[in-house]
């Protein structure tokens, strides 16, 4: 989880894709030698069914496949590459659960701890969970700690270390198998494949928290369109995670009940909405076209704030009560996500906890030439997915995609070999 040196520029762009409640978005980037993300391009779906992704679940794989293919094609054209062969996807949603599971190995005598042993232990933990619950899919496994001959350590053992007995404790993020199958199925009809699935809470941690934050303990409140997620971390351990199936979209729907068309309700919320009437600078009135476009609706700023505050209370009160139980173990609460951009949200949340509240920023990970709009909280998940994707590539160098020219040469070589074989076969037959 701690930040690492993200390496040098790669020949193939990193691609992150986000399946959101309002849109499907993709970001392509390369990593600089300084370990920063240089964004090459961003694209989002032009035609997005409102029911395509609902509360973190893909409803239609065929529709999702079309939209994903469209977005990735637009992105490839934007950055002027022939094809995007790999993508990294961050998954979340209300079906996500956190499970602790362990594994133990006796090596017979004290000897080096190789990566294949650790991989076997992680695979064993995955199998334990899936055998216990056949309907579950393990979406991510993160080591919490290791014990070497009974001595605990947080860092992953290296081959230089020796031990007779190796123990590992993992935090596994488990979701419905249906979730993973539908996401995976959404890519089957596209010329791309999922390189690696990440856990949304973990990618946000990579993007927003420093190594000191992680060591001292921190929390991230992800306020999305259809879900709100609170995750709490300390050291290498995930202490808590919970998803509430409510978000910014539900606030817009509440405003819609005043007879305002949903697109206008969304715009009214974003432009003039406040998290509480206490933060409204002036009780202005706003005249908005009604749903039928035949008349208009007048709504006061205080009234609008009351509607927003009521939904925020319903969404966050339980999460804040849970958060406060960890007040002595964490030093900061970062807020992010599209709904966190509501006026006064930071101050509103601060009234519910003694833990310092601040906006999380992924901007330190972006290269100097990045447009300012990409520093908005709505892009934190994509940037975090890119960081995790790059780390995955570094950890799995044998899985690097081939350059186009190498792929073409291999194809040409295979064709020549086949034609040569055909010539000899014909010669022998004659």
- What integer value in Å does the Rg equal? 25 Å
Q: Which outline best applies?
A: globular
CATH superfamily of the domain at 214-360: ATPase, nucleotide binding domain
Total number of strands:
18
Distance between the termini: 66 Å
Mean pLDDT: 83
Question: What fraction, in percent, of the residue positions are helical?
Answer: 25-40%
* Topology-level CATH name of the domain at 214-360: Nucleotidyltransferase, domain 5
CATH class designation of the domain at 214-360: Alpha Beta
Helix count equals: 11
Structural class: alpha+beta
Share of residues in strands: 25-35%
Cross-sheet strand order for the largest sheet: 3-2-1-6-11
Largest sheet: 5 strands, mixed
Could you say what the CATH architecture of the domain at 214-360 is?
A: 2-Layer Sandwich
Instruction: Extract low-pLDDT stretches.
Output: 1-10, 402-410
Order of helices and strands: EEEEEHEEHEEEHEHHEEEHHEEHEHEHH
């Amino acid at each position: 989880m701690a930040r690492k040196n993200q390496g040098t520029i790669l020949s193939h762009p990193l691609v992150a894709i986000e399946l959101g409640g309002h849109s499907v978005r993709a970001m392509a980037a390369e990593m600089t030698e300084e370990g920063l993300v240089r964004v090459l391009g961003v694209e989002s779906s032009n035609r997005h069914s409102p029911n395509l992704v609902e509360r973190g679940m893909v409803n239609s794989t065929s529709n999702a496949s079309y939209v994903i293919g469209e977005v990735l094609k637009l992105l490839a054209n934007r950055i002027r590459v022939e094809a995007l062969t790999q993508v990294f996807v961050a998954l979340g949603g209300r079906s996500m659960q956190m499970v602790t599971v362990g594994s133990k190995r006796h090596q017979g005598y004290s000897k080096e701890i190789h990566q294949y042993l650790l991989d076997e232990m992680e695979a064993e933990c995955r199998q334990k969970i899936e055998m216990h619950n056949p309907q579950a899919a393990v979406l991510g496994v993160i080591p919490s700690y290791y014990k070497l001959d009974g001595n605990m350590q947080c860092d992953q053992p290296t081959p230089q270390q020796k031990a007779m007995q190796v123990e590992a404790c993992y935090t596994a993020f488990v979701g419905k198998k249906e979730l993973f199958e539908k996401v995976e199925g959404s890519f089957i009809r596209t010329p791309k494949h999922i390189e690696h699935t990440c856990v949304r809470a973990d990618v946000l941690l990579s993007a927003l928290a420093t190594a000191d934050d992680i060591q001292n303990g921190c929390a991230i409140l992800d306020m999305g369109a259809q879900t709100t997620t609170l995750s709490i971390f300390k050291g290498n351990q995930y202490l808590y995670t919970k998803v509430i199936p409510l978000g910014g979209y539900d606030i817009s729907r509440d405003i819609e009940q005043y007879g305002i068309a949903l697109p206008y309700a969304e715009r009214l919320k974003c432009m003039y909405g406040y998290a509480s009437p206490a933060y409204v600078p002036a009780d202005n009135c706003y005249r908005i076209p009604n749903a039928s476009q035949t008349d208009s609706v007048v709504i006061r700023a205080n009234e609008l704030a009351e509607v927003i505050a009521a939904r925020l209370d319903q969404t966050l009160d339980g999460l804040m009560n849970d958060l406060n139980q960890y007040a002595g173990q964490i030093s900061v609460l970062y807020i992010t996500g599209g709904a966190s951009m509501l006026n006064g949200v930071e101050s509103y949340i601060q009234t519910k906890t003694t833990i310092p509240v601040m906006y999380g920023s992924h901007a330190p990970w972006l290269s100097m030439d990045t447009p300012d709009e990409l520093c908005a909280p709505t892009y934190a998940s994509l940037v975090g997915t890119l960081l995790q994707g790059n780390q995955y590539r570094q950890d799995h160098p044998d899985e690097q995609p081939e350059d186009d020219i190498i792929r073409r040469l291999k194809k040409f070589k295979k064709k020549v070999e086949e034609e040569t074989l055909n010539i000899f076969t014909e010669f022998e037959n004659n």
